[in-house]
Every structure is written in C-alpha cells, then in structure tokens.
C-alpha cells in the first residue's frame, strides 16, 4: 500500500489531480473544504510520526499546531502594522516549523523519558496547561476571542495577494505535497526504521545500539515541526486563531483522524484526514448527532479494527500475494457480514435521529426525514420498524460474523502453511 | 588483554533478596563459555547485569579492560557486546529483512540520520542478504517476523544479535523450547556465528552445553561454585552435589 508512493510519477499524478480539484469543485464551500483538508493532512501525517511510526499516544499534539498558528498571526499582524520587517507569505510554514520544533524539542525532552501511559498523561497535562495559558496570557492569546489578522500584507509578486481563497488553496497544496513527501522519505531513513523498531520492541532496540529515548525525542521534535508548519497554514487559511486550536479538541480530532484512517500505515492518516474533514463539513449540516456517530465509529474501530481503515485493507495483502482466489473466496462471507451490520446500523441511526428530533423539536410535529424518506417520530410504527431492523441486524450478525471469521482463519492458515513450506 | 569480560565482586539485590553475591568471573577472549545452574540461580539476572539491563548493587564489570557497569544498554552494545533473550525478542510486525537490517544500522555508522535512504545503501543491503543466508532465512525475508515458526524466530533473534558485528555475544537459552532436530540446527548455527568471537551462553540442555562450551561456569544461588572445562565440571564433586545430582540430566 505504501509502495505506491515509491515512484515519482505517482506523486506527479497526485499533484495534478489535487491541482485540478478546484476546477471541478468550484464552489467556495468546496474550496474552503479542500484547503482545510490540505492543512489537516499535514497535521495528521505529522501526528502519525508519533502515534503510528513511533508508538507514542499523545493527547496534546495540537499545542505545536496552535502555537505555530498564534506565532504566525502575530507576525502577520506585525508585518501589517510595519513593526516587523516583511516576510514572504509563501514561506510562513517555516515560521510554524521553527515554533513547532522549538516547543516540541522542549516538551519532547521531558515527556519521552517514558512511553505508554506516562507519556500519554504528560501530553494531556501539557495540553491543559497551554490551553489554560491562552486564557491567562491575554496579551499574547487574547483569551477566548483569539486573534484576527489580514493575510494580505506586503508586496504582491506576480499579482499574488493571497487574498482569494484559490491562492491560499494552491499555497496549502504545495506545502502539503512537500511536507507529506518529506515525511514519507523520513520513514525510509535509519531514523524512520528505528522509530518503528522502538515502537515494536524498545528493549530490543536498545540492544542493537540505539538510545530509545533519543529516537523517541527525535520523532517528537520532527512531528511537532511538521505540526507547526500545518499550524501556520491553518492560520493563513482562516486569518484567525483561537484557543481551541491548541486544546484537547484539536488534539482529539487529529487522534481520531489518524486512528480511524489507520495509524499503522503511511496512507492511513491521509485517508482519515480527508474522510473525517469531509464528513465533518457535510454531515454536521445533515444531522445533529454527527459527533455521536463519530464517537461510535471511533469506538468501533478501536474494538474491531485497531489497524484502522488502511489496516483492514493491508491485512489482506499476504492473502492476495499467496492466492488471488483465496481473496475472492472471502468476498461473499464479508458482504454478508457487512450487510447484517448495515441493517442493524440503519435501525440504530433511525432510533438516534428520532430521539434527537424529539428532544429538539416541539412535541407537536413528528415528520422527520431519515435516509431521504419521511418518518413520523411520534408514531409507534416508525419506532417498531427501526427497533426491528436493529434486532434483525444483531440476529444476522450472529450468523454471518462467525462465517466471515472462519473464512478469514482458513485463508490465513493457508498463507501460513505456504510460508512454512517455502 | 586475555579477558573479554571480567566481573569483579559483582552483587545484585532486589530489595532484600540477594540474587547475585560477590560473583567473580573471567571470560577469555574468543572462548565459548557456558553458564549453567538450576532454575532461579540468577543466570538471566547475570546476563541483565552484564548487558546493562539492570544496574549493579556493587562490584565492577569490564569489557576489554573498560568499565561498562555504569553504561546504558545501547552504549554497551556499541562497545561490541550483543545479546539475545530468553523470551524471543524480535520486531514482530517488521519483516525478517528489516529485523536484520535494523540490527546493522548502528555499526554501519548510520546513526539517527533523517536524510539517508536505507534502501539505497547497497553495502547495508548486501550485508543484510548475506547474513539472512547465513542464518537460513533468506527465503522468508519479506514475511513479518511474527509469522515465522518458533525455531525460525530464535534463529532470527541470533541473527539480530550478531548483525551489529559485536565480538562478544551473549545468548540466553537459545535452544529453549526446541525439538531435538531444531536444537541441533541451532547449535550448528551458534558454532558457525561465534567463530573467532567470544561467546557467553546460558543453557539448560546439557547436551548442547557440553557440545559447545570450551569452559563452563556453574552458578548456584547467586554464586559461581566452579569454572572449568566440560570434562572437569562433569567430575567436579561440588557441582554434582549442588546441581547435577539434584536433577536428571
């Protein structure tokens, strides 16, 4: 899966497609969405240098994203008020990178002494601390209001003012490609390989000559650096930065994106960032219960597919390599299992939507649109229908899941015998 | 300097429990030295002390005359001492190939580089391939190490241990849990990879020990009661009483 990045031409194709997207999706909504995706792809892939590549669970990585954003806004304002010398807007991600690297190096030095729970707790502590500071040091953070800026400052070479959103999109796209390519290359270096090794088995890593702490610290600092670059672009994109950008909210969002997409694979966080940003922007308008669904999805992934979406695909790689027919034989049991789950989920979503509807809308009205059809949230029939669907889903799942698991077990046994026979 | 490793008055306590007491041991350069002893004698603790996994309570350990007892495991490894573990200790989700290649990175001077691409380093990949051939795992180089059979994982573990080119090797029960034929293959491999190197081995299988070792030390309750050639150990009264007599071997 990762190997598709190996050829240079793949990168060119991705760049061309991404550059053409605004032509196809030319609404301002789409442009804003695409810009946001670009920023969050950088941030999520950077975060995954810790979570996926290095095996460090951070609950506070937005610190470096957000602080870089604040620094960028202050510098933009300084340039605008001519208290600071001009600095090209194109190079702003460097400012964020330096800020991220600086704070990441300090916090990383302290927190990477320990991994696992201690590391996670320390990251959470730092996150709360910085969030609290945004409300205390009003002169820098301006409390809950955050700070505004105007990104149109200084000279405008080639008529590029970075005023129109399309210009910002291409700026973000350019840096997104550069950052993702760099982070991909880093996974192929001695540091990148040892980062994986430390994740897998820190004890072993020490006994092949590597300081586990140094590897973790370096991963932390680099990850913060790229997060900072993303933070700068975030600030340019919105011309505003608020306390939530350093808070647990943003830290949690990036964790969700990396984990749901699949932390174990380089592509996973990209899939997660694109998918969740899209759903966040579209589903949030359709349903009030969007965050509930997000939470359920996350829990479901943690419980049933800890490798995320990318992990689900990649775990079938050995089977596909051994025998294509083996993979095809899995399709039917999988579809049956997925079908049963979807049946149950439709029921569950129906119930959730009607509950939300009843708690939000005055009692008199009952018409609600669920899955493009109108239902009566006050009528017993709708409730029976959706509860019935849940029950059918559970009943079918109990039959189809063991079948799917058995097919998978059979396939993997074949693969294992192939390996040992070689 | 004839001694590769020298332990002087080494003691280790965990709380009140004294696991190793005033232990003295010299491992000569290029010898194959086995440490045997009943369960709980402190063999694994001794390994952990030498490799820096545990810190000494008192005493001194030197490697080629240089004190190593205050160093971190990775620093000791860089001085040319590598070890394997009693419980298989590999990188299970990484490929067999990557396991070996990671073991080589430091000795190739690649350190923590973020600009050199490992796939492009021809010498590194050539060495990885030849080591994989030596430990007989080349055919499954690209399989996740965790999917290997138990015996192959043990072979891989030895491969990782020798990958860095250390001249002092410490193997902790390398044949534990193996069938006879697997064990024979492992012994052959160990002989081969420890050629012209110092080998310290902890082993329960007396057949393996007497086959491999130039000298044997017997560790009982944290003390070494004898260090001698296999033949002399066999007839040593104290050893027979304290150890061989109590168990069937």
Protein traits:
heterodimer, A: 422 residues, mainly alpha, ABC transporter involved in vitamin B12 uptake, BtuC, 2 domains, two-stranded antiparallel ribbon, 74% helix, B: 249 residues, alpha/beta, 4-stranded antiparallel beta sheet, 9 helices, 34% helix
Give the overall form of chain B.
Answer: globular
Radius of gyration of chain B from CA coordinates: 18 Å
Strand/helix succession of chain B: EEEHEEHEHHHEHEHEEHH
CATH-derived topology of the largest domain in chain A: ABC transporter involved in vitamin B12 uptake, BtuC
User: Strand order across the biggest sheet of chain B?
Assistant: 6-7-8-3-9-10
Overall domain count of chain A: 2
Largest sheet of chain A, in brief, is:
2 strands, antiparallel
Extended strand count of chain B: 10
Major beta-sheet overview of chain B: 6 strands, mixed
Quick check: average pLDDT of chain A?
90
- Output the helix-strand order of chain A: HHHHHHEHHHHEHHHHHHEEH
Structure report:
The complex is a heterodimer of chains A (422) and B (249). Chain A starts with 7 loop residues before the first helix and ends with a helix. In chain A, helix 2 crosses helix 11 (248-261), helix 2 (28-53) crosses helix 12 and helix 3 (62-80) runs antiparallel to helix 4. Chain A has 422 residues and is mainly α. Chain A has 17 helices and four strands. The model of chain A has no long low-confidence stretch (mean pLDDT 90). Chain B starts with a strand and ends in a 7-residue tail after the last helix. Chain B is an alpha/beta fold and 249 residues long. Chain B is globular. In chain B, strand 9 (215-220) and strand 10 form a beta hairpin. The model of chain B has no long low-confidence stretch (mean pLDDT 92). The A-B interface holds A 185-186, 188-194, 196-197, 200-201, 203-212, 214-215, 218, 222, 264, 318, 416, 419-420, 422 and B 51, 53, 72-74, 77-78, 82-83, 85, 89-94, 98, 101-103, 105-107, 110-119, 139-140, 143, 147-149, 160-161, 163-164.
